[in-house]
Amino acid sequence: MWVFKILLSLFLFMNTLISYTFSNRIHSRSLTPLHKYDKKYIEVPVDHFNFANQDTFKLRYLINDENWNPESGGPIFFYTGNEADITLFAENTGFIWELAPEFKALIVFAEHRYYGESLPYGNNSFSDAKHYGYLTVEQTLADFVDLVTYLRSHQDGKHRKLSPVIAIGGSYGGMLAAWFRLKYPAVIVGSLASSAPIWLLPDLMDCEGVYRVTTSIYEVAHRNCADNIKHIWKEINNITTTGEGRSWLSKNWTLCQPLKAENYTQGFKMWLKESFLVVAMANYPYPTEFLGHFPGNPVKELCEHLKTANLRGKELLGSVSNGLRAVYNYSGKAQCLDWSTVGPTTFDSRGWNFQACTQLVMPVCSNGVNDMFEPQSWNIVEYLIKCEQQFKVKPRPYFITKQYGGKHLETSSNIIFSNGLLDPYSSGGVMSNVSNTSIAVLIPEGAHQFDLRESNQLDPDSVQVARKYYKQIFNEWIIKFREHY
Fold first, then answer.
1. What pTM value is reported for the model?
2. Three-class secondary structure assignment of the chain
3. Residue-wise over 9-39: b if at least 16 C-beta within 10 A, else e?
4. Which of 15, 59, 281, 418 is 20 to 30 A off residue 4, Cα-Cα?
5. What pLDDT is attached to residue 264?
6. What is the pLDDT averaged over residues 396-412?
């Protein structure tokens, strides 16, 4: 049963991976607030679109008004919350905090329903479909509309001049920021959608893209690195066929949960595949704790141990182990590698697994030829059957495309789609302009959500240039808004 639960959870993660808040598998941590904000709540309907359900709940948001000038209609920088506790993103989106003083802006981080403290039915929120069926993109955006409306008119109970609102989000939050502008252009003046794979949906993108880009990132780090990783899967299959081999691997890799049986192998390999992906996403030039407790340039650190060409057998397995140890345990404090962990304490997989099964069905596969991973096919029929069995609801994999236009965004306006070329999920992002004012910003040296992070002396030029460009565009949006209000 333990193995089955791990495999099922990993199946959902690996086929719908859009949460980028994975914990370090061998290092637990707690968030220490870096920024000053107040925690507040607004009461919103559980169901914005049906009069039959009159239930409400308290949606949490974080707010900082120390720079805001409401009398003159100072702007509101509105972060569209992700699939985790909102404090995680408030502490890792330094770009907003740096920008607010210059624009005299109000900072708001809105929590996504069903995550963090914003649970519509408390401990019963995930008890059955009757309770968790309100976890949808459209309900979430309607929450944000209510919050924006309230903030514009009732900050501290006083009537204020209408403030322009700019939605900012990264990853899934970036998808929400883009859809917010598409759905409610009268509510927000524009959106910055960072690392938002809004086209990583059925029939819109090649499912092999995520792992192809991941592979290229390791190839850039060292020419032999990806090729060595490509052979790790066969070696794991071979050595785990015997108890002696499993014992050697468990000891050599210092696994917290030894590979006691051969049927553990698939779950272990899926965890390893996920690890290579997350390390690539977190490939920042300085140490971070956003996607895990990683050193600077973690892909390079890992590949330092895989430079020798044609590694095979136990030599290859030991080299990969050393590489992972250099990344996951660079602090030297960890005792073992916890490969059974699926998500950190700040990430609630209950909510994301449901979304990934119902609306945000994201095809991810590998073929082992154009990428460094073991072949993994994508079959939407099988995937949806598993989802329906788990959640007892009928998935709607094409709903988002029908609702928000898919690739037909030529009528959209005032959206910045930014993607780092060192981000695996850029494969599902908007990589070219889709209208006169909905534009693509490509960041050659950018990892996942790099542009939303706080400034650092190690930031590459392309990230710094992108941030300066955002400021220019924000200013243009605000000026045009004030010409009409």
1. 0.93
2. CHHHHHHHHHHHHHHHCCCCCCCCCCCCCCCCCCCCCEEEEEEEECCCCCCCCCCEEEEEEEEECCCCCHHHCCCEEEEECCCECHHHHHCCCHHHHHHHHHHCCEEEEECCCCCCCCCCCHHHCCCCHHHHCCCCHHHHHHHHHHHHHHHHHHHHHCCCCCCCEEEEEECHHHHHHHHHHHHCCCCCCEEEEECCCCCCCCCCCCCCHHHHHHHHHHHHHCCCHHHHHHCHHHHHHHHCCCHHHHHHHHHHCCECCCCCCHHHHHHHHHHHHHHHHHHHHCCCCCCECCCCCECCCHHHHHHCCCCCCCCCHHHHHHHHHHHHHHHHCCCCCCCCECCCCCCCCCECHHHHHHHHHHCCCCCCCECCCCCCCCCECCCHHHHHHHHHHHHCCCCCCCHHHHHHCCCCCCCCCCEEEEEECCCHHHHHCCCCCCCCCEEEEEECCCCCCHHHCCCCCCCCHHHHHHHHHHHHHHHHHHHHHHHHC
3. bbbbbbbbbbbbbbbbbbbeeeeeeebebee
4. 281
5. 87
6. 96
Q: Tell me which of 217-231, 252-266, 344-358, 406-420 is least confident.
A: 344-358
C-beta atoms surrounding 185 within 10 Å: 15
Q: How far is CA 49 from CA 45, 46, 81, 485, in A?
A: 9, 9, 21, 29
- pLDDT of the residue at 347: 61
CA–chain centroid gap for 155, Å, is: 30
Beta bridge partners of 40: 61
Out of 3.30.360.10, 3.40.50.720, 3.40.50.1820, 3.40.190.10, the CATH code matching 42-196+408-484 is 3.40.50.1820
pLDDT of residue 340: 75
Report pLDDT digits (tens) over 364-400.
999 999 999 999 999 999 999 999 999 999 999 999 9
Instruction: Reply yes or no on whether the pLDDT at 1 is more than 60.
Output: no
Please determine, for residue 260, whether its predicted confidence score (pLDDT) is greater than 80. Answer: yes
pLDDT at 135: 98
